[in-house]
Amino acid sequence: MVVVAETTRGFGPRDARTNLVLAHTAPHDPLDEPTARLAGRLLATAGGNNTVDALVAAEAIRHAPAVLLTSDPSDLAQLLAGHPQVRVVAI
């Protein structure tokens, strides 16, 4: 749900790409405590403070193999160091 909040603004044309992706992906479980704890460990290991990116990274690890598309790959790449089953791709 973090990704939905990050990528949508409630305007049809602007949200079209996100809506298309969501329509073609299976729903998954909501964020749970083990995933949130993994995000905390990722933050500690990377020395970061971007909780949203850490939650996205933790979800990707949980559902690996995975590909994360982002316009700012550096933070995610740091969080995912040592997790080759998740690939970060700049768009």
Q: SS-based structural class?
A: mainly alpha
**Approximately how much beta-strand content do the residues carry?**
5-15%
Percent helix = 55-70%
Count of individual helical segments: 5
Q: Biggest sheet, in brief?
A: 2 strands, parallel
Extract low-pLDDT stretches. Answer: none
Question: How would you summarize this macromolecular structure in one to three sentences?
Answer:
By secondary structure, this protein is mainly alpha-helical.
Task: Please tell me about this protein's structure.
The chain has about 90 residues and is mainly α. The chain has one domain. It contains five helices and two strands. It has a two-stranded parallel sheet. β1, α5 and β2 form a beta-alpha-beta unit. α3 packs across α4. The mean pLDDT is about 90.
List its traits.
two-stranded parallel sheet, 56% helix, 5 helices
